[in-house]
Amino acid sequence: MSAQDKDAPELFTRYGERSPFAEAYRGLRISLFHGNGGSLRSLGITGAGPRHGSSTTAANLALIMGETGKRVILVDADLYKPSLHRFFGLPNAVGLSSVLGGQARLGDALQTVTPPASLRLLAAGPAVRNPAALLRPEAVEALLGSLQGETDLVIVDLPSVGAVAYTAQLGPILDGLLLVLRAGTSSPDVDRLVRRRLKGTNVVGLVLNRVPLHGSDASSYRYYAELK
Ligand SMILES: Nc1ncnc2c1ncn2[C@@H]1O[C@H](COP(=O)(O)OP(=O)(O)O)[C@@H](O)[C@H]1O
Ligand SMILES: [Mg+2]
Questions:
Q1: Alpha carbon nearest to ligand 1 atom 1, residue
Q2: What value, to the nearest 5°, has the Cα angle with vertex 24 and ends 75 and 211?
Q3: Measuring from atom 7 of ligand 1, which residue has the nearest CA?
Q4: What are the extents of the domains in the chain?
Q5: Cα end-to-end span (Å), the chain
């Protein structure tokens, strides 16, 4: 994380680290990829609402995936609020918007996140006036195909499905989608989202984020993942 970026979001996990946070993400990795999720090659991550923790989950899960030796490409597909580059202290000058807009080649837009070298980032790239027009499902599907040609897993961070329409449109082209919920989100709200907006999308798990721990340490959080 660059020293200059004081507002850089927090990465709770370090490669090989033993903190409870890193362990929580390892648990999530196991729920997702051992068992029937073993065949997932593209995973979308979205939040039920803005700031529920989609980007935090995407960045930390991608790092923890690297421990298994899997090659991972993390894609920031939130063109409204790009943030993944900031987790790793990387620039956002070239990225998804540049590749889809024809201003850059994919190979030139991918950035290596170290360590581990097996994790690469396709940042969101420069802001565009109409993200939904750029992120047409056919265009994104073609790009996903190219990305999958050179990695084991593509993790795509999407804007909140409750706030941005294109997330629901991209859901069905991904092998699976993880829905991040801020603790306190009501089950009827989740139900409505999944039924109305995520029809045709393979929702492979829910992550309950920002759960206050019991006792005196109520400002800490833990993660919980559950497969359907
Ligand atoms: N479990 C957590 N504990 C503490 N802060 C968190 C947690 N998850 C997310 N945050 C913070 O909440 C804010 C929003 O998280 P972010 O991942 O950017 O949400 P989203 O991508 O869904 O908008 C960030 O400042 C992030 O650091
Ligand atoms: Mg985000």
A1: 210
A2: 95
A3: 210
A4: 20-226
A5: 35
DSSP, residue by residue, 98-143: HHHTTSS-HHHH-EEESSSTTEEEE---S--S-HHHHT-HHHHHHH
**CA dihedral of 131, 136, 139, 142, whole degrees rounded to 10:** 120
Rounded to two decimals, what is the model's pTM?
0.90
Ligand 1 surroundings by CB, under 6 angstroms: 9-10, 47, 50-56, 83, 160, 209-210, 221
Q: What token pair was written down for 95?
A: 């990225």
Instruction: Output the CATH code of domain 20-226.
Output: 3.40.50.300
- Taking the C-alpha atoms of residue 131 and residue 199, their distance in angstroms, rounded to an integer, is 22
Q: Relative to the CA of 47, which ligand 1 atom is closest?
A: 22
Note the pLDDT tens digit of each residue in 14-64. 666 777 788 888 888 888 887 655 689 999 999 999 999 999 999 999 988
